Amino acid sequence: MSLTRRQFLGHSTVAAAALAIPMVADRSVLGANDEIRVGIIGLGVRGMGAHLPGFEGQKGVRVTAVCDPDRQRLDQSADAIRSKYQHDVEKFVDLRKVIESKDLDVVAVATMQYWHALPTIWACQAGKDVYCEKPLSHFIWEGQQMVKAARKHNRVVQTGTQSRSSETARASIAYVKSGQLGKIKYLTAFANKPRTSIGKRTEPLPIPETLDYELWCGPARKEPIYRDRIQYDCSFTWNMGDGESCNQGVHEIDLARWVLGEEKLPRRVISCGGRFTFNDAGDVPNTQIIYYDFPSAPVLYEVHNMVAGKGSKEAPDFLGVRTDTCVHCEGGHVMLRSGFACDNEGKKIKTFSGGEDHFGNFIDAVRAGNRELLHADVLEGYRSTAVTHAGNISYRLGKPASAAEIRKSVGDTPYFNDMVERLFTHLKAHEIDVDAATITLGPWLDVDRDGECFKDSAEANALVQGTYREPWLIGEV
C-alpha cells in the first residue's frame, strides 16, 4: 500500500493524537467459543437497523464499539444498545481510532459509499475482517484497491449484497440454469422506487454543532449544503452518491451477473435519463435506463423514482413487480428475487422461497478464517458495483437530446428499443416533452474488459479513477 502515514492520519477536529495502525497480515482462526467483537462505523438506517441486529443475533458475536462523526447519533445509538441488548459499547467519533483498536475482530462499514473504500482498506491493513455495505465503492478504481487490500492482507471481506445469501434467489437461479425454460434471451433489471424532492435551499443548511463536518465529508468535496437534510439525501448527489442505478441497482445487477456467470464488465454500455419534476439540489437521475452489452446476454436496467404519472399515487411496475431482476428465456421469464416463473402467456408455473442470513454467512467465514465460504466476497461486490458505475459514467458524459436523437443513437439494439419507448411513455405521463431536448443521452462507451476501463475516452477514464480531497487519499495497493 503506497499510503503514507501522513495521508492516513490526515487532520480532523477530533484527531488529537497520532494513530499507529498495526500492519497484521497473518490469518488467525477463531475457535467455536471465541467471542467475535464487532465495531460498527456509520449509525444510520443500515448501521442500526441491519448491522446491529444482524451481528447481535449471531451466537458468540457482540457489538462492542460504535462510531459516527455525529455525536448526537453516537450517544443515541449507545443508549439504544444498552437498552435493547443490556451491554455498553465504546463510542468513537473518529473511525481511524476504531480501526486501530486491539479490542475488535471485525469492522462493519455502514457509511455512505463515498466513505467505504478507506475504512475497508485501513481495516484490512490493521488485520481486521470487514463487512462493507453496498455499493462497495464510489469509483471503479478504489474498488480495485479494496479487493487488492483484502487479498494482500488475507482478510475476510463481505459485501452487503444480501441476495447472495437468499435461498429464494438461489433456487430461482438454479431453475433458470436447469434449462427448463430454454436459453436466456436477455435480462431486465429494474427499480421502481418513488422518492421525493430533497429540497433546494437559497441559503446553505446550517451544520449541527454535534457533527464533525470534516470527518463526515472525508474524501468527498467539503462544500455548502443546499438540500433540506444533511444525511441520507447526500446519496442523490454525484459528490457523495451514485444514484439509484448504483445504490439499488447493484442488487439487481449482482443477480444478473450471478445467473449469467459474467465476471467482467460489459463490452459496451449506454445510458440516458434525467432528473425530472423534482427541481431540487440533487444532480443524479431520478429516471434512467441503461444497456449493458454482456457477451452471454444483454442486461437492461431501468430506474423510476417518480410515480407512474402526474397526479398518480401509484408506483410504476414491470410485469407486475416493482423491483427485481427478470430473466427472459425462450419459454418464459423468472423473477429472481420475488421467486416465481411464468410461461410465455404470463401464467405462473413455479414459485421459490427461502430465508437469508448474510451476516451469519460472514461470521461463519470469519470464524473459519476462510473467505471461500463467503456468499458475497469483496471481489463479487466490486464486479457488480463496477458494472453500475460503467452505466453511470455514460450518463454523466451525456448531453441533452430529443426522442428522435435517442432513437437514432440506440438504433436497432436488441430489446433496448422497447425500454426506450417505455421511458418516453413514462415521461409523457408526467407531461414532459420528449420531442424537445429534455433527456440526457450518454455516449456508447466501448469497454476494455481486461483493463477494467474504457477505450478511447479520457473523460470516462477520469471518472473511473475518481477524485479525492486531501488528506483523505487512497494509494495504489
Which descriptors apply to this entry?
477 residues; alpha/beta; Rossmann fold; Dihydrodipicolinate Reductase, domain 2; 6-stranded parallel beta sheet; 18 strands; disordered N terminus
Description:
The protein is built from 15 helices and 18 strands. With 477 residues, it is of the alpha/beta class. Helix 6 (140-152) packs antiparallel against helix 12 and helix 13 (403-410) runs antiparallel to helix 14 (416-428). It has 2 domains: 5-164, NAD(P)-binding Rossmann-like Domain (Rossmann fold, 3-Layer(aba) Sandwich); 167-355 and 377-465, Dihydrodipicolinate Reductase, domain 2. The chain has helices spanning 5-9, 45-56, 71-85, 95-100, 117-125, 140-152, 167-177, 213-217, 244-247, 249-260, 358-368, 378-396, 403-410, 416-428, 458-465; strands spanning 36-41, 61-67, 90-92, 106-109, 129-132, 157-159, 184-192, 268-274, 287-293, 299-304, 323-329, 332-335, 340-343, 348-351, 399-401, 439-441, 445-448, 453-454. The longest helix has 19 residues, at 378-396. The strands form 2 sheets. Strands 7, 8, 9, 10, 11, 12, 13, 14, 15, 16, 17 and 18 form a 12-stranded mixed beta sheet that branches. Strand 1 (36-41), helix 2 (45-56) and strand 2 form a beta-alpha-beta unit. The termini are close together.
Quick recap:
It is built from 15 helices and 18 strands. The chain is an alpha/beta fold.
In the CATH hierarchy, the architecture of the largest domain is 2-Layer Sandwich
Stretches with pLDDT under 50, minimum 5 residues: 1-22
Q: How many independent structural domains?
A: 2
- The top-level CATH class of the largest domain is Alpha Beta
Distance between the termini: 4 Å
How many β-strand runs? 18
Might you state the CATH topology name of the largest domain?
Dihydrodipicolinate Reductase, domain 2
What percentage of amino acids are in beta strands? 15-25%
Give me the number of helical elements: 15
- Class per helix and strand makeup: alpha/beta
Q: Quick one: biggest sheet?
A: 12 strands, mixed
Per CATH, the superfamily of the largest domain is Dihydrodipicolinate Reductase, domain 2
Shape: globular
Radius of gyration computed on alpha carbons: 22 Å
Mean pLDDT, nearest integer? 94
User: Portion of residues in helices?
Assistant: 25-40%
